[in-house]
Amino acid sequence: MKNFPSLKSNTDFQRVYKNGKSYANKNLVMYVLENDLAYNRIGISVSKKNGNSVVRHTFARKLREIFRLNKIEKKGLDIIVVVRVGADVDDYHKLERAYLHLLKSHRLGKEDAEEIK
């Protein structure tokens, strides 16, 4: 298994929460902050109020896969995705639409990358 580029330390999370730009929708909150690396890193936060560990881990796995499949053209970003309590994202495609909506809000979607070029 390849090493996945993720935020792991509490200081990384706190730095993005404090200094990052955030947008939210009904199901997710996304914080984005530039880093000095040549690649993007993602951090996923799912509260214990969202269910048992199986449910929380399922959210995290789905979000990691969505991040992997929907590459962001701009490099050097730290991204934190927070799953809101009571999020209605049992379906993978609903979760993906919510994620892509937030990317568009941050102007990081594929259409926005084509506009920048």
UniProtKB/TrEMBL annotation:
Question: GO CC annotation: what is one?
Answer: ribonuclease P complex
Name by which UniProt lists this protein:
Ribonuclease P protein component
Question: Which PANTHER family does the record match to this protein?
Answer: RIBONUCLEASE P PROTEIN COMPONENT (PTHR33992)
Gene Ontology biological-process entries = tRNA 5'-leader removal
Q: Which family does it belong to?
A: Belongs to the RnpA family.
**E.C. number(s) listed in UniProt:** 3.1.26.5
Q: What class of enzyme is it?
A: hydrolase
Q: Which gene is the coding source of this polypeptide chain? A: rnpA
**What is the phylogenetic placement of the source species in the record?**
Bacteria, Bacillati, Bacillota, Clostridia, Lachnospirales
Function text: RNaseP catalyzes the removal of the 5'-leader sequence from pre-tRNA to produce the mature 5'-terminus. It can also cleave other RNA substrates such as 4.5S RNA. The protein component plays an auxiliary but essential role in vivo by binding to the 5'-leader sequence and broadening the substrate specificity of the ribozyme.
Native species = Lachnoanaerobaculum umeaense
Record-linked SUPFAM superfamilies: Ribosomal protein S5 domain 2-like
Keywords (A to Z) from UniProt: Endonuclease, Hydrolase, Nuclease, RNA-binding, tRNA processing
Per its UniProt record, what InterPro entries does this chain match? Answer: Ribosomal_Su5_D2-typ_SF, Ribsml_uS5_D2-typ_fold_subgr, RNase_P
GO MF term set: 3'-tRNA processing endoribonuclease activity; ribonuclease P activity; tRNA binding
